[in-house]
């Protein structure tokens, strides 16, 4: 392959809606730091410019990440030049590999284009020589771009070349020595050249965009003006890839939040069974209801957050579908009305299906939010009623005992005044001794106390349960 180039397009989330203006996610600078590590490792791509990347980016000051320096910057590029020349590396084949880098800030996303190419476009690169470009250094395990990445190869071959076989070998060589398994997903044409599209998933974590590698292999076997047209469409191609990875990322995030919401909803069903069990008992367990009241609001809040996130994801995927469509239309214009059919299918079929799935999830989960609210209101009403009944019962008991003991104390005081007039020692109760008047007074005091307790019960009964007027 002549006029060969290997490009990494990586996309990493800088900030979300939850960050305040000027703030970024915790690992916002991870993309730049990992690129520096690749440059610092002599077994990877030790380009001088890559090792010194921090000193070139405007979001760094004195070697430290400072995203506030990006505020107010109108150009999307994070350097003051068109691109950054990283220098060159020698190979054992006698030729050098050059590299340049273009860093971008695309709205809420950091994007990078790192392109490697032989020092002369006339140098022919085969499958074995591809390893001089150290493609393993550009794989997800090293780059860790949160939104995903694309590895792209471009090369020119003779019309007699078996391009299908060549593309297959190139895709396998890109991920050699890893657990990634490239699978061809689409085939078409881009600016007159053959386009082979692969998806290499991590079998241990296939749904994680940061561990997936999207591969595009463009083979020019017809001397088409692919290179010239690609330069003209560069910005649209970059933004299209960004929207592509965002759509995949958003959908996976939405599926994860849906699974979390379903788990919470399942827990709600268990709480409803527990609630039914508590209120079906002969005596409602107030402590059990209070325990439920302590648990359910937290679950309800988590459920609402999941639903809110799903709604945000639906808005985000809709926005990126629109952006993708705009980019594709401009690429078609530059390509004289032509663009890869697989890219059109992605936006018209796959993305639309995922968008509708998120909306279906929202519709399915929304009634659960109302159920949470109804359950909380029902438990709160029962708890308040039971607590009021308990407080009223306690108040009634206190009133009855107050009347009883108060009346008994009065009667006891009167009786004691008469006992003082009897000058007789108190003896033990026995058949041989007549009972002392003290025992009679004690018995009368007890009887008086119970009498007044009865009076108090009648008074409180009339107070809390008055007769209906006729």
Report on this model:
The protein has an eight-stranded mixed sheet, with helices on both faces. The protein is α+β, with helices and mostly antiparallel strands. The protein starts with a strand and ends in a 6-residue tail after the last helix. The protein has three domains: 2-221, no CATH class; 249-383; 390-464. Helices cover 52% and strands 17% of the residues.
Short description:
This protein is α+β, with helices and mostly antiparallel strands and 470 residues long. It has helices at 30-40, 48-51, 53-56, 140-143, 163-174, 226-232, 234-280, 286-334, 341-419, 437-464, and strands at 2-13, 60-61, 64-65, 84-90, 96-106, 109-118, 148-156, 181-190, 193-201, 213-220.
Low-confidence stretches: none
Mean pLDDT score? 83
Strand order of the largest sheet: 4-5-6-1-7-10-9-8
Distance between the termini: 107 Å
Count of all domains: 3
- Tally of helical runs: 10
Counting helices, strands and paired strands, the structural category is alpha+beta
> What would the principal axes of the Cα set say about the shape?
elongated
Q: Report Rg.
A: 40 Å
Order of helices and strands: EHHHEEEEEHEHEEEHHHHH
Q: What is the makeup of the main sheet?
A: 8 strands, mixed
The total count of strands amounts to 10
For the structure shown, list the relevant keywords.
470 residues; alpha+beta; 8-stranded mixed beta sheet; two-stranded antiparallel sheet; 10 helices; 10 strands
Strands, helices and their partners?
Elements: E1 2-13, H1 30-40, H2 48-51, H3 53-56, E2 60-61, E3 64-65, E4 84-90, E5 96-106, E6 109-118, H4 140-143, E7 148-156, H5 163-174, E8 181-190, E9 193-201, E10 213-220, H6 226-232, H7 234-280, H8 286-334, H9 341-419, H10 437-464
Parallel strand pairs: 7-10
Antiparallel strand pairs: 1-6, 1-7, 2-3, 4-5, 5-6, 8-9, 9-10
Helix pairs in contact: 7-8, 7-9, 8-9, 9-10
